[in-house]
Known about the structure:
This protein is mainly alpha-helical. It has a single domain (3-22, 29-121), classed as AF1862-like domain (Peroxidase, domain 1, Orthogonal Bundle), CATH 1.10.520. 80% of the residues lie in helices and 0% in strands. It has helices at 3-23, 29-49, 51-61, 63-78, 88-93, 97-121.
Amino acid sequence: MNQAVIESGRAEFALNTVKRVRDDLQIEDKTRKEYKQYCKKFPSLILTNGLAASVAFAMDKGGAYGLIYDNIAEWLKQNGFFEESQKLEGYICSLNSDMYRFVTKETLAMFIWLKRFASGLIKEE
């Protein structure tokens, strides 16, 4: 697949994801604000601690981090990395080192767009 097509898919996914967070009336304004901040910080968390530890952290914290956990799972499932019936943390822990690095790079590439759109679309109240 062409790199531009892949990048366009990441951008479209991130745009739709952030719009859902922004427009969901069930999500509190405080959580939206945290989501925006955490989208900026999460790539650093991955680079510092690794994808598995970062996903475990997001799963444990819930709230805005829980939304980020769901975003990662949705992106990887949508792109055929793992099955709908699997849990993200189980999938990540089962990867060999080459695939773990690839999935980490793919997640970081998705976050480039996620943090851009979160920054632009989620306004501070």
